[in-house]
TrEMBL record:
Pfam families: Dus (PF01207)
UniProt KW NADP keyword: yes
Keyword tRNA-binding part of the UniProt annotation: yes
GO molecular function: tRNA binding; tRNA dihydrouridine synthase activity
Lineage: Eukaryota, Fungi, Fungi incertae sedis, Mucoromycota, Mucoromycotina
Domain spans labelled DUS-like FMN-binding: 45-295
Species for this entry: Jimgerdemannia flammicorona
PANTHER family (UniProt xref): FMN-LINKED OXIDOREDUCTASES SUPERFAMILY PROTEIN
Protein name: Dihydrouridine synthase-domain-containing protein
Keywords, alphabetical: NADP, RNA-binding, tRNA-binding
């Protein structure tokens, strides 16, 4: 039996939920047909360690509601140890935030029992989807035998899925992986890896593929995001041949045109560093890709105001916008209460603007936080003072002719968004 037909046969045997759509590219005929996505949201924000924490996700929701958001990777043990209890009902929220229909919780780990218990807890607190990390290349993650190193042992990943099924996990379980790892980088191996998962008792409903291989030694995590070349064609081929499997491509999608082009070849596009560096890019996608009128999008001023309001609620309720389990100040919170610090709450705001305007605001925000702690200012006053000082600095730079072309372009861009 030819390889392609054998793979398709394997999928059909083990995936009742998979469907073959007539408008997906035909494997047998080779005739390219327009692809229709099977995702409610075709664009998503990638899980990023120390970036996509609950506070950054709050900010992204205020910017746009059109995209699926992924939590930063959380180890299964952290979920289990912080499971809600009568004595600590809100401790889990500091890792994954409040349940939202747009949010997927990414789990890290290699022990099937722990991963299954963690997935069940995530389901019980109200999240609608979990993702298994099989793509992170960091040394720390490797030493824990999870992340992209798991691509070397597909049977282990299948065991994790089997355990989730045994624990009665009913929400969708997805997998994020690379196109290869070390010398296991052939297309045939990638197909073998996915086919093994699809033969589990809980086959993934959706796979997100970073279009780069990973080197476990010799490259840092940052280098693994840039040095291995992108191979989109491998992902497109995967989407074509595993046409019953929902496939999202990840890696290097930093313009609207790249995203639009990618969506012609697979179901979804995941965006990472571009959103970290420029969160308002989500509104660019809304206008130019999702055809949302500019008048329906929030201006930056309203986003900041609403985010500060959320921060005030979170600082009172300890990481949860609806669970008043704790009550402590953001400056002198007892460590056992896990109340978020002012710097943690306001870090997402410092990422909101780019260029000269962003640099000025970050500087003024840092100074206002120091002064605010000394004088015990309310959180809103810290942000208001930073905004006022940043505007004054910008006006002075313009008057003195210091403003760069980058600054001017940024101001024009913000005016268009507003």
């Amino acid at each position: 039996m030819p390889t392609t037909i054998r793979l398709r046969h394997s999928i059909s045997l083990h995936r009742n939920a998979l469907i073959t759509l007539p408008n997906v590219r035909s494997v047998t005929s080779g005739i390219p047909l327009p692809r229709k996505s099977r995702l409610a949201r075709t664009t998503s924000v990638a899980p990023m360690i120390d970036v996509t924490n609950p506070h950054f996700l709050h900010l992204l929701r205020l910017i746009s509601s059109s995209h699926t958001l992924y939590s930063e990777m959380v180890h299964a043990n952290a979920i289990i140890k912080n499971a809600p209890s009568p004595s600590s009902p809100a401790s889990l929220y500091r890792f994954i935030g409040d349940p939202h229909p747009d949010t997927v919780v990414q789990l890290g780990g290699s022990d099937p029992e722990q991963m299954a218990r963690a997935a069940k807890i995530v389901e019980q607190v109200g999240f609608g989807e979990v993702n298994v990390n099989v793509g992170c290349p960091s040394d720390r993650v490797q030493h824990g035998c999870f992340g992209v190193v798991l691509m070397k042992t597909p049977d282990r990943v299948a065991s994790i899925l089997d355990a989730m099924h045994a624990h009665g996990v009913h929400i969708p379980v997805t997998v994020k992986c690379r196109i290869g790892v070390d010398d296991l980088d052939s297309y045939e191996y990638l197909c073998h890896f996915l086919s093994t998962l699809l033969r589990s008792s809980l086959p993934p409903t959706h796979v997100i593929v970073h279009a780069r291989k990973a080197w476990l030694h010799g490259l840092s995590p940052k280098q693994n995001r840039t040095v291995p070349p992108l191979d989109y064609e491998r992902v497109w081929r995967l989407a074509k041949e595993f046409h019953g499997l929902v496939v999202t491509a990840n890696g290097g999608f930093d313009t609207v045109e790249k995203v639009r082009s990618g969506l012609e070849r697979c179901d979804g596009i995941m965006i990472g560093r571009k959103v970290m560096d420029e969160p308002m890019f989500l509104q660019t996608l809304d206008r130019e890709l999702h055809n949302i009128p500019p008048t329906a999008l929030r201006p930056i001023s309203e986003i900041i105001d609403r985010y500060v309001g959320l921060c005030i609620t979170i600082s009172t309720h300890a990481f949860s916008t609806h669970n008043p389990a704790y009550n402590a100040t953001i400056y002198y919170a007892p460590s056992q209460r896990h109340t978020p610090s002012l710097s943690l709450l306001l870090k997402p705001l410092s990422m909101l603007r780019t260029g000269g305007a962003g640099r000025r605001f970050r500087r003024c925000l840092g100074e206002a936080m120091v002064e605010g702690k000394r004088n015990e200012w309310a959180l809103r006053k810290v942000v208001e003072v930073a905004l006022e000082k940043a505007e004054e600095m910008g006006a002075m730079d313009m008057a003195e002719g210091v403003e760069t072309e980058e600054d001017v372009a940024e101001e024009v861009k913000e005016a268009v968004v507003a």
